[in-house]
């Protein structure tokens, strides 16, 4: 047979991959069921052979041969014949080997109502007798685990009537070896005398005993206890292995009481009353597992109205685990929620679960899963979603997302009806009921009461209306609510009801309030900025008036230009000063205070005033800058750059120093060059800074250019490149200082939106161009 290649699911969407995974799991489960059915049939045959050995007093091999020959003569399958021998229907609780639907069990003669329990007791007693014979034990007992956790006696061998009566039922609260094994799920192998406080099975307290869990395919079914006589009787490994195998065989005895129509060992019907209580769903019990394992549950009852998506009968589902029956439940976290419900006792409802989670192959795309605590287990049920369910869910989501709550007031009955979101909006629990039409005004702000009264009266006049008011919630908070309403008129023209919606506008209202406050702050900030700009401009014009023409000081022709920044907020601290000093000398200063606005203007005024006062001392430029630097560390801290020069007309020399400022440009004989920079850091950086002086000799016709960085700075251009360009433009500046200044400003390429200050100084004389 050619093997089939698995489908390539790399390009499939997650849902298709999950369906493919579910198909693989289902196929594997069918294979496991086939193997389990074969094992069950083999166990029935083995039990029948054991019965024949006892009845015919023959060997096991002779019993097997006799069973095969009898099956061949009668034309009945060996397993069916074996089932008749032990009284167990071969078709009960299993799937046919073909993997299809289970067929009906073979016909059996009518039996008395208590017959199954008696057969089970007889079968169990016979099996335990074989256990004693094979293990050389003195006594054995078999209990079945009940839904309430108790252990109920099923069969025994080697026990007196008194012992059997004493151990008929072991409640879960009783500390015994059997209950310990039932609760812990682990076998006990005991040797030597038992403590006095222990209550052992059988009179042999000093011998060895084995207490083993009896497991079915999906759950613990009961407990088997075997006792040896004598003292300190050690159980050899071979006997332990034989007992483990016999415990598996006894599982079939206990499992026979779980099939549909069977009875408990006491003869009482099992869960027959559930059919009158549960109309649909699965009743499940938790399964004990190892720590960290996926939680799982055993299906103990299937309601009559429940339909399995895979078409399995109720008998096929009972005794299975949920993971085995519906493996896709683990993908969508339903088993985790079931564990939470079992722990907390709070029911849950899971909406819009993909139908693939429950095995639905077609039909509704989504199901609603309900998990409810029931006795000591859970009731799990799911129903396909209908169009009405989806529309109701969609409407609920729309109301929640839009903050909309519906309402209707009947003028016929006087009742007021709300949707769920209306209760949320009003902050009222649904159990308290809706606020009546007449009491609505009591839940709004007193100032808005007339608005609500007008809203209601307009509706009663059969006119639609919209109103906005403030709702007071029970905790005292306010919600901004917009109400829309319309009248409901019957065919005969009678007004029978009014209805509408409430919309929560609180978020929008708060946003509008915040926006209005922000706009007010922005307007106030803009107004203050305008005032600051006007103050700075007035301050600049007051201390640095722009002359209508060139200024003549110490025999020099001087032109000054100031160009403000394009943006009002960028008005900076560029400044200059030209002062005639005693002895026909001239003080030439240009500077730039860091920052913009009022602070920069105040710093500019402070530096200019301080330098004027210091210049009267007759000190040189370097000393003047040192003193000026010291003043920046008193009061308001000021940072900035300054170039300070003293011109002596008699010697035609300019002594100058700089505090981080750009060097001057000297134009002579048609060429321009940037003067070498003496050392000096910016003001306000170091209180002990020194400022180097240098002397530049000037000749007739020389032009000296002092400027701030706003004239040359460009983003992404090196400072040296900007200085070279300034020198090239200055070389063709001409001899008229006014034209020279305008030419430099006109060719300025700065793009930093900064103030610009420019001083052009010319020594008269020399050739004119």
Automatic annotation (TrEMBL):
> Per its UniProt record, what SUPFAM superfamilies does this chain match?
GAF domain-like, PP2C-like, PYP-like sensor domain (PAS domain)
PROSITE patterns the record matches: ANTAR, PAC
Q: What is the lineage of its organism?
A: Bacteria, Bacillati, Actinomycetota, Actinomycetes, Pseudonocardiales
> What keywords were assigned to this record?
Hydrolase, Transcription, Transcription regulation
Q: What is this protein called?
A: ANTAR domain-containing protein
Enumerate the spans annotated as ANTAR domain. 25-86
Keyword Cell inner membrane listed? The answer is no
Where in this protein does the record put region Disordered? 90-120
Alphabetically, the GO molecular function entries are: phosphatase activity; RNA binding
Q: PAC domain location, by residue?
A: 465-517
Q: Which organism is it from?
A: Prauserella flavalba
InterPro entries assigned to the protein according to its UniProt record, in alphabetical order: ANTAR, Bact_Sigma-Reg, GAF-like_dom_sf, PAS-assoc_C, PAS-like_dom_sf, PAS_fold_3, PPM-type-like_dom_sf, PPM-type_phosphatase-like_dom
């Amino acid at each position: 047979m050619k093997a089939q290649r698995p489908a390539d699911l790399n390009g499939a969407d997650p849902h298709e991959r999950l369906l493919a995974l579910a198909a693989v799991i289902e196929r594997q489960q069918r294979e496991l069921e086939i193997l389990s059915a074969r094992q069950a049939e083999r166990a029935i045959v083995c039990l029948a052979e054991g019965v024949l050995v006892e009845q015919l007093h023959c060997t096991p091999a002779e019993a097997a041969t006799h069973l095969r020959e009898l099956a061949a003569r009668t034309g009945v399958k060996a397993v069916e014949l074996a089932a008749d021998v032990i009284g167990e229907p071969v078709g009960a609780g299993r799937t046919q080997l073909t993997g299809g639907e289970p067929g009906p069990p073979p016909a059996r003669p009518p039996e008395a109502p208590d017959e199954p329990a008696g057969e089970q007791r007889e079968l169990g007693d016979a099996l335990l007798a074989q256990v004693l014979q094979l293990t050389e034990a003195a006594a054995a007992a078999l209990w079945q685990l009940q839904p309430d956790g108790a252990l109920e006696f099923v069969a025994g061998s080697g026990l007196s009537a008194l012992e059997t009566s004493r151990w008929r039922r072991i409640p879960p609260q009783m500390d015994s070896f059997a209950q310990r094994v039932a609760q812990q799920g682990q076998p006990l192998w005991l040797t030597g005398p038992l403590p006095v406080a222990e209550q052992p099975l059988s009179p042999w307290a000093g011998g060895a005993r084995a207490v083993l869990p009896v497991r079915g395919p999906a759950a613990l079914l009961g407990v088997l206890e075997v006792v040896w006589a004598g003292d300190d009787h050690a159980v050899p490994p071979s006997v332990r292995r034989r007992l483990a195998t016999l415990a598996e065989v006894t599982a079939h005895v206990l499992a026979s009481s779980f099939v549909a129509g069977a009875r408990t060992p006491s003869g009482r019907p099992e869960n027959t009353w559930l059919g009158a209580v549960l109309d649909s769903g699965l009743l499940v019990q938790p399964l004990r597992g190892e720590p960290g394992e996926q939680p799982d549950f055993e299906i103990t009852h299937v309601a009559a109205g429940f339909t399995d998506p895979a078409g399995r009968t109720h008998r096929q589902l009972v005794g299975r685990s949920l993971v085995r029956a519906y493996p896709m439940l683990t993908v969508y976290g339903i088993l985790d929620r079931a564990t939470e419900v079992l722990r907390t006792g709070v029911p849950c409802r899971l909406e819009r679960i993909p139908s693939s989670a429950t095995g639905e192959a077609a039909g509704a795309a989504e199901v609603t899963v309900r998990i409810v605590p029931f006795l000591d287990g859970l009731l799990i049920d799911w129903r396909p979603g209908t169009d009405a369910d989806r529309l109701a869910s969609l409407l609920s989501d729309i109301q929640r997302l839009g903050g909309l709550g519906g309402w209707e007031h009947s003028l016929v009955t006087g009742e007021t009806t709300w949707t769920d979101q209306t209760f949320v909006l009003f902050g009222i629990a649904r159990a308290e009921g809706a606020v009546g039409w007449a009491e609505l005004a009591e839940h709004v702000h007193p100032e808005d009461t007339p608005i609500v009264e007008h809203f209601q009266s307009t509706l009663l006049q059969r006119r639609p209306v919209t109103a906005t008011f403030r709702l007071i919630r029970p905790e005292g908070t306010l919600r901004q609510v917009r109400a829309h309403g319309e009248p409901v008129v019957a065919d005969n023209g009678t007004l029978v009801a009014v209805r509408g919606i409430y919309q929560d506008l609180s978020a929008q209202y708060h946003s509008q309030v915040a926006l209005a406050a922000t706009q007010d702050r922005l307007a106030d900030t803009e107004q203050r900025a305008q005032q600051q700009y006007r103050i700075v401009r007035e301050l600049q014009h007051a201390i640095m008036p722009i002359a209508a023409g060139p200024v003549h000081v110490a025999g020099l022709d001087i032109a000054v230009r100031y160009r403000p920044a394009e943006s009002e907020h960028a008005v900076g601290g560029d400044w200059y000063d030209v002062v005639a000093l005693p002895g026909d000398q001239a003080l030439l200063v240009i500077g730039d205070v860091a920052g913009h606005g009022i602070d920069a203007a105040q710093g500019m005024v402070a530096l200019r005033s301080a330098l004027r006062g210091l210049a009267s001392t007759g000190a040189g430029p370097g000393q003047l800058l040192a003193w000026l630097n010291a003043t920046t560390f008193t009061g308001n801290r000021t940072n900035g750059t300054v170039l300070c020069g003293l011109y002596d007309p008699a010697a035609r020399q300019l002594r100058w120093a700089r505090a981080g400022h750009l060097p001057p440009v000297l134009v002579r004989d048609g060429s321009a060059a940037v003067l070498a920079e003496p050392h000096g850091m910016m003001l306000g950086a170091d209180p002990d800074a020194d400022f180097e002086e240098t002397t530049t000799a000037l000749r007739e016709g020389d032009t000296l250019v002092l400027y701030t960085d706003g004239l040359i700075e460009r983003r992404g251009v090196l400072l040296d490149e900007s200085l070279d360009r300034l020198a090239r433009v200055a070389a063709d500046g001409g001899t008229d200082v006014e034209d020279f200044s305008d030419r430099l400003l006109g060719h300025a390429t700065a793009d930093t939106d900064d103030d610009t200050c420019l001083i052009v100084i010319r020594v008269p004389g020399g050739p004119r161009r």
